[in-house]
What we know:
The protein is an alpha+beta fold. The chain has five helices and five strands; from the N terminus they run βαβαβαβαβα.
Amino acid sequence: xxxxxxxxxxxxxxxxxxxxxxxxxxxxxxxxxxxxxxxxxxxxxxxxxxxxxxxxxxxxxxxxxxxxxxxxxxxxxxxxxxxxxxxxxxxxxxxxxxxxxxxxxxxxxxxxxxxxxxxxxxxx
Length: 124
C-alpha cells in the first residue's frame, strides 16, 4: 500500500536491539488529497538531494481508506536529537499539523505505539 521510498543514501530501516530509540523510524505526515500545497514534491526533492534520509507516500488504495495521503519521512535513529532535527526540516518544507513518530521496531512488531508527537518536541 506504499510507493517505493525515495532516498539519495539508499536508506534502509534498522531494528536495534530491544529499544525503540535505537531503531530507525518515521514521522507520519498527512497531506490533503491532491496535495494542493505541493508538500509531497518538496519532501521528495529533499530526500532525493539527501536533506531527508528517505520518504515514501501512500498508494491510492490507502489514500481512499485514510481520506488523505500519508507520507513517511524517515530518521536513521529514533533518538530525540535525530527525530527533532528531521521534524524541523519537515516544518521548514511546509509540513503542518500534529505529527506522530513511530519507530520501525514498533512497526515490525505490529505495535500501534507512537514514540514522539510533534507537540512534545516543539514545546522544548
